[in-house]
Amino acid sequence: MHRLADKYGVEIIRTPAYHPHSNPCERQHRTLGTMLRAYVKDNHRDWESNLQKVACAIRSAKHESTGQSPYLVNFGREIKLHGDDHKVSDILPDSGKPNNPVEFTKIFEDVRKRLDRAFERSRQTYNLRRRDVKFELGERVWRKNYPQSKAGQYFTAKFAPRFIGPFIISKCISPWAYELKDLNGKLSGIWNVKDLKPDTSSSYD
Questions:
Q1: What is the mean pLDDT of residues 38-56?
Q2: Which end of the chain is more exposed for a tag (fewer CB within 10 A), N or C?
Q3: Residues 148 and 99 in one domain
Q4: DSSP secondary-structure letter at 77?
């Protein structure tokens, strides 16, 4: 995977654990799940057979932030959903004409401006609840616990400690994401600052 990414100039960035806000794919999965629930109902065995219909609906629907459908933004024209949408000239061998680059540029610029405005609105809303916390390399912290109940082991997640640790900040990925290691030097993943709190125990002196 790393060799393939290097070949195509792709930068691999890891997102913090249990922080779907930083991963747009997770938000899309949430949309897919909502739509699939309307199709599968009580039969959950063949849910993948509905993916084509759901994907087509997403590609052709107008996006709230961009004001355009994903298909239009990618290909410069709306998707043809019905036979009446096609013309005979569209299927002639010599009738293929490239999309107007001027019109496509206008669409791109409009979408970019809309996304910038949507990002700014989201940023302002998020910052209303954001904690202004910064950790230093080598600092000890506790991280939020995300346990799962295990009936066979008589373990209930709601009774588990809310935070576990301590861990050591081994790398500062960004002001909002930190790589952690336990006290034995074992990697404990990348975590968002919202899931961390300083270790104030007396043994940390």
A1: 80
A2: C
A3: no
A4: S
